[in-house]
Amino acid sequence: MRGRATPPGPVLDLSGDRLRRAMADLAASAEPTGGVNRYLTALHLKSALFKEVLGQGATGLSETEFLDLVAFMAPVRRRIGPVIARLGVEELGRRIEALLHGEGGVDARLARFIAAFPNGKEMRWVRDLGAELLHFTQPSVPLMARWVWDARVSTGVLREIWHAADVDMAEISVPDDLATFTTLYAELEGFLEGEGVWRDRIWMVDLLMAHIYAGYINDRGGQYLRSDFTQDVDPMLHTRRMLGLDAVDTETGRTRLRLIDGSAHEFGGGRAARLDVTTAEATPEDANADP
User: Fold this and answer.
1) How many Å apart are CA 192 and CA 100, to the nearest integer?
2) Whole-model pTM?
3) CA distance to 1, 18, 29, 218, per residue, from 25 (Å)
4) Is the separation of the CB atoms in 131 and 143 below 8 Å?
5) Which residues, 6 or more positions from 286, have their beta carbon under 8 angstroms from its beta carbon?
6) What DSSP state is assigned to residue 248?
7) Sign of CA dihedral 221, 208, 179, 79
């Protein structure tokens, strides 16, 4: 499957049938919690929050502001506590500023950001941190998270929508660099246009990909992110968690981000305090903001 305006990059052999089935399942699954538009609004508000906090630069970032963002990054929030305690938010702010506005292209900046942290399996979430910061402050940069495509272990959304008789056995020899993710987004936006989706296509791509990978977690119970996502009957549970839209525990009203002392982080206010997919509504200011 090819999108209308695919940029130079690897050829991605995507399955239109798999995508159409995922779209239909997404629409049906989202209906009980307000429909697809409620989730698109929540993603728009998440991006508005990231832009609001980081729009004037990350070097003056406060700990509360940073934690407000971390609460909406599910692969990050369980692991970052010790790093904050060791480095401090001031140092993290300098690294984030270099990631967002430093020299070089996106690939180079993300690679330097990752390399600034210790290496090892327990730190692989740093790529997800960098990917979310880039995407939700600059939505034209595709979401380059591991769950979208991780070439090292050959897992992610890309495999789940690959055109192959046996997806599990397919060899997908494409890197997880900016060119691949940009091509993937262009392909999926082309697919959505063909399905009659004309608005919010960047956020719709995010939502569709999250729902596809949530299906992988539900159906196969793989170990990747298994500790973050437990079984539940809600068909949108894992979809929300992939996108960090489950930041607030609806039963307790507390955030799911645990601080180093074990207590729950409390939002500092503003957009963070009201970004909840079950209640998300766009204000006039939000509705007029740039996507």
Assistant:
1) 29
2) 0.84
3) 20, 11, 6, 13
4) yes
5) 44, 45, 48
6) B
7) negative
Q: Which two tokens stand for residue 70?
A: 């971390």
Nearest by Cα to 117 from 72, 87, 90, 144: 87
Question: What is the token pair recorded at 247?
Answer: 């930041």
Location of structure tokens 């159409």: 20
Q: How many residues does the chain have?
A: 291
Q: Which two tokens stand for residue 78?
A: 């369980």
DSSP state of 123: G
Q: How confident is the model at residue 257 (pLDDT cuts 50, 70, 90)?
A: very low
- Two tokens, residue 92: 């993290």
* Per-residue tokens: 132: 């979310």
Phi, psi of 73 (to 5 degrees): -125, 95
Distance CA 288, CA 291 (A): 9
Q: What's the pLDDT tens digit per position in 59-97? A: 989 988 898 899 899 889 888 999 999 999 999 999 999
- Whole-number Å distance between alpha carbons of 214 and 237: 8
Tokens coding 267: 């939002």
